[in-house]
Every structure is written in C-alpha cells, then in structure tokens.
Amino acid sequence: MAELNTGDSGGGKDKKVRSKKQNSKVDLTAMVDLAFLLITFFMLTTTLSKPQAMELGLPDKEKPNEEDQNIKVDENRTMTIMLGDNDKLVRYVGLLATPVAGGAPKDFAYGKEGIRKELLSRKEAVLKYTGDPKKGMIVIIKPGKKSNYRNLVDILDEMAIVDVPTYAIVNDFSPEEIKLLEGNKK
Amino acid sequence: MAGKSSKKAASIDMTAMCDVAFLLLTFFILTATAKIPEALPVDTPSSTVQTKLPESNLATLTIGGKGKVFFDLKGREVRIRTLELMSQKYGVEFTDEEKAKFSLMEGIGVPIGNLKQLIGMKTAERSKAGQPGIPKDSLDNQLTDWVKNARIANNEANNANGSKEELHIAIKGDAKEEYPSIRKVMDILQDQGINSFSLVTGLRGENF
C-alpha cells in the first residue's frame, strides 16, 4: 500500500535499477497499524489518573459531653443542614424553635442554584454580623437515616466549594427535627 | 514521466509515523499500572476536590451492596504481615504459598474462616464468588482487627525503613449506599482513634 509497485512501465535497464531500490525499502504500514493497536490497548486498560479523595476529619469521640458543655456557640452563626431520603435537604439558621430572621426551616435543592446560593449569602451575613473574620459561619450537617452516601459527599463538597470555616457532622436528631425531615414528605 | 511521478506521490514515508507510534507505545507501557479488578465494584459519588490518594501506606474500605465491607491494602510485605497477625488472632493457619498469593490479591470480603478457600480460587472465580463482606457486628468484629493489624504491620514495615508514616485509611462508598452503613464503618475507625480519613470520590466537572 505504502509502496506501490510500479511494475514494468520503463525499459529493461530502468526496471532493474528500480527494483534494486525498492528492495531496500520496507513497507511500514502494517507495523504502524500494530503500534497504534497496542497504544489503544494500553490506553484503555490502564488507569491514567489516581482516584480522587476528599479529606475528612471528625472530632474525637471520647468526650462529647464535655464539649457540649464547654463550648457555647452564638446561634446566629450556625446553620443546620439535615439530609433526608430522595435527596431532600432542609436547613434552618439558629435554633429550631427560634430561628434567626429568614432562617426558618426550608427545603433546598443540591447544587449551584440551591443550597450553595444560600450558604454564600449566609456566610456573608454572618461575617457582617460578627465583624471578625475568625468567627465565621458554623454549619452542622445532620445526615438522616434514609440519606445516602452521595448526599453526604455532595454536602461536604459544597462546604469545600463555599469554603465554610467550620463544619461538623452530627448524628443526633431531636424529635422536632425528625418530624421536619419526614413529616412533610408529601 | 508525468505518470510515473504521480504514482510516486501515492506512497507515503511511514518511518516517522512509525517512530511516533512506538514512542507513544513505550510511554504508555512504562507509565502504565495494570488495572486491578475490583472485588466489589462501586459507583463512587463525584466531588470537585482534587486531592489524590497516596500510592502506598493505604488501606481502602469499600462499602457497597447494602452494607458489605471489603478490605484492601497496599504493599506486599504489609499484606503478608497483616495476614500473619490475623491468623494468630483467629487461629487460622496459612501456608507460605497462600500468604504469597494473598499479597497479590485484590480486596477481600469474607470472614477469616473462609479466607483460605477464597485464596485457593482463581481470579475469575473469586469475582463471581459473591463474597458476603467482612463481619463488623459488635459480637464478631473482624473489620476492626483487620484495620488494627494492618496499622501494626504498616508501622512495623515503616519503622524498619526509618519512616514514621501512619497507615492512611480511605473509605470508598457506593453513592447509593445508605448513610447508617457508612456511619458504622466510620464508628469502627473512630473507636480506634482514627479521626481523619479520606473519602474516595470521582471527578466532577468544573462548573458544577
């Protein structure tokens, strides 16, 4: 294919010289075909990139009660995010019984237009309120029993995107919170 | 003369192309690490975080299929030592051959009693075997021991090399797995004082 045999188009003397030249050339087409086949094979069977990983640090489990007693947190700085089944997400700001203005329990969607907008605006509001960049927003994540792993990773990812200074995963639910998460499902 | 030259033009010199192709081929062969078949294939959720997992000093806990947990460990020496420690603890003997085979295996998801049988299988059989996962109940918590012994083995190996690196734990969960089964594994890790670990995720597009 690469070297077309021109055959006996020329005279007898000519032909002899040309055929000598052609012998020195090797048809590389098949070799190239083989090389590309192998390249394709190796590309498809190898993992080019190492898997991504998200670092997660959890608080020490030993003395949860002491922590609860000693640390008093301004409720204006906290936002609680509860994760339920079917990608349900409820958030409230401050305490559940007495939420901060505009922070009553509300459903949000995951992603750019949903919880991220809320997180960004809240983060700014908290900074304005405290006036101290070290006292930023605190987010409490409460994954419910029906929530799945994707929800947890999604919300942790939002924390990383929005750059929330402090966040924690908490597993205790008050009865009111369970009601909120499961009650208005319809 | 004119006809002859047009015939010549139809042939292309393949030498350069061949060179490039083999250069690429060499590159791919040298940089490649063969894809190890996973014992429990899971669909990891995606995130925008770009941190990479380390190549060594790593234990991976794969969670999927309604709370099944599989255990995987990097490093042949560490694997053999871990298996020895486990066999001491549970009184299951392994031959040197089985240890060597275990050091090259993919992740495992069987109780220690069935491990001998699993090691004896061929790779293709193993993936079809339907491994039940490592027991992690409070009565029979083998997962705790696997993690603990892996840490001991890893520290021994690192101390011999003069390095102080601790074993890194990664959790690789299926996206659809319910939170309680993930939490169970996190609790097991936290009971050992491991408060920091990685969650394996896939890559998400920039403008998520």
Number of strands of chain B: 5
SS summary, helix count of chain B: 8
Taken as a percent bin, the fraction of beta residues of chain B is: 5-15%
Secondary structure category of chain B: alpha/beta
Strand content of chain A: 15-25%
Q: Mean pLDDT of chain A, rounded to whole units?
A: 76
Biggest sheet: strand arrangement of chain B: 1-5-4-2-3
Q: What best-fitting shape of chain B do the alpha-carbon axes yield?
A: globular
> What is CATH's topology name of the largest domain in chain A?
Nucleotidyltransferase, domain 5
Gyration radius of chain B (Cα, Å) is 23 Å
- If helices are DSSP runs of H or I spanning 4 or more residues, what is the number of helices of chain A? 6
Largest sheet of chain A: 5 strands, mixed
Mean pLDDT figure of chain B: 83
Largest interface: A-B, 53 and 62 residues
Helix percentage of chain B: 40-55%
Estimated helix fraction of chain A: 40-55%
Spatial separation of the terminal alpha carbons of chain A: 70 Å
> Judging from the principal axes of the Cα atoms, what is the shape of chain A?
elongated
Low-confidence stretches of chain A: 7-13
Q: So, CATH architecture of the largest domain in chain A?
A: 2-Layer Sandwich
Number of domains of chain A: 2
Write up this protein.
The complex is a heterodimer of chains A (186) and B (208). Chain A is elongated. In chain A, a hairpin with a 5-residue loop joins strand 2 (78-83) and strand 3 (89-93). Chain A folds into 2 domains: 12-45; 72-185, Nucleotidyltransferase, domain 5, CATH 3.30.420. Chain A contains 6 helices and 6 strands; from the N terminus they run H-H-E-H-E-E-E-H-E-H-E-H. The longest helix of chain A has 19 residues, at 112-130. In chain A, 42% of the residues lie in helices and 16% in strands. Strand 1 of chain A pairs antiparallel with strand 5 of chain B. Chain B: It is found in: Cell membrane. Chain B: Its main location: membrane. Chain B: This is Biopolymer transporter ExbD. Chain B: It is a single-pass membrane protein; Single-pass type II membrane protein.
